[in-house]
Amino acid sequence: MDAKEPILFKSFPALKEKVPWISLLTNIPTPVDKLTELEKHFNMASDGSVYIKRDDIDHEIYGGNKLRKFEFLIGEALKKKKKGIQTFGGVGTNHGLAAAIVTKELGLKCDLFLADQPLTWHVQRSLLLFDHFGARLHYSKGYGSIALKGGIFRLFHPKHFMMLPGGSLLLGRGSPLGTVGFINAFFELKSQIDGGKLPKPDVIFVAGGSTGTAAGLIAGCKLLGLDIDFKIVAVSDPMFVNPKSITTNCNVTLEYLQDMDEAIPKVKVEEDDFEIYTDYLGSEYGVKTIRGQNAVDTIMELEGKKKGFKLETTYTGKTVAGLFDYLNKDENKSKNILFWNTYNSQNLDDLLRKIGFNWKNLPKKFYKFYETKFQCWQITECPQETRKKCPAYLNHEYRFWKVTKCSLDEEKQKIARDALSKVIELEDT
Ligand SMILES: Cc1ncc(COP(=O)(O)O)c(C=O)c1O
């Protein structure tokens, strides 16, 4: 058997003939690491533990949760002899970036239909990277109009394979294959538990956006009969992240596999198999929250710098904010906890330097994402009092030369900008 072949096929060999799949991941099984500094920080008991599943390095160019889904989804596109992929997301979509990278690798076309999301440095980077990897970009302000544009495009491009946003089922509709990628991921975790790489988790924390990741893990766990408590931190609208949508996504995918192979146990996921944390989203998808930003910074200090991973503020920061509140409670100090890291940590900064931040190569419609002025608390290292009043406080991705409405005097601003330009050049551009 090919070492990279899905472990799910090993358990249920009949699936191999029927379920489409291509090999994309370059580093599986992804490691599990013990977060010992974090354990100390939260005074975990000696029989408790916190681990991270390092999906952030599952691919040599772009890690994260997307390629696990694409092994099956793009497997289907190739089986159907499609020549391109069409998909949807916000202007900073990680799903779209992963699609652009993989399609380029496979010689397929890529058309991304993009809608507004809160503007951050991450959005600016993503747009440049989509373009660099050869994706064609289509833009409208809202999701309704990109869906419409995408629908019209589909009529004229039947050789394109359509993936829904996030590569997940949408309220039970679409392809269950992205979710199959995470059922397979859970089987991978089980073999790591069996191999003694980590204790069986009592609890798994994972982000819920389009929910394919969480649904796959929960369904995989159900198939294998493990007793694990799933905490899904909602990072997108409750319309997508709710008990019904998640159980539907789990069960549609389980039924798909049960139809493919009668050896698959006839299990079903129920709403009490998981818990949704709804307090960490903030006002909407993509906005930074103070708790999310603090989680990103704390993890970076305690573990990320040493182990080479970072979180971001849209998904994983909010998830870890939920984890931190959980770890703060005395009754959880003896639990075995796993955080499933879904964000890429391969370095794309060098590539962005090479591109030279040349946003004028993008279609004109996207210029506005670079011409808008930002504000920045971090660059000016403002005192706490000033920061509290500053609307840009905690927006650490904002670039220092775009500072507006700064309440520091000119001279102090200049000193801070000069000093920080060095730091930011090293870290970000
Ligand atoms: C970094 C990251 N984490 C988590 C998610 C959420 O995954 P899902 O859409 O499967 O819920 C996404 C989706 O875009 C993501 O980019």
Describe the structure.
The chain is an alpha/beta fold. It has three domains: 7-65 and 174-341, Rossmann fold (3-Layer(aba) Sandwich); 70-167, Rossmann fold (3-Layer(aba) Sandwich), CATH 3.40.50; 373-427, no CATH class. The chain has 16 helices and ten strands. It has a six-stranded mixed beta sheet. It has a four-stranded parallel beta sheet with strand order 5-4-3-6, sandwiched between helices. Helix 9 links the parallel strand 7 (203-208) and strand 8 (229-234). Helix 5 packs parallel to helix 6 and helix 11 (290-307) packs across helix 12 (316-327). The longest helix is centred in the middle third of the chain and has 18 residues, at 177-194. It is globular. It starts with 6 loop residues before the first helix and ends with a helix. Pyridoxal-5'-phosphate (PLP) binds at residues 64-65, 94-95, 166, 168, 207-214, 315-316, 342-343. Pyridoxal-5'-phosphate binds at residues 64-65, 94-95, 166, 168, 207-214, 315-316, 342-343.
Key features of this structure:
single chain, 429 residues, alpha/beta, Rossmann fold, 6-stranded mixed sheet, 4-stranded parallel sheet, 16 helices, 10 strands, globular, disordered C terminus, binds pyridoxal-5'-phosphate
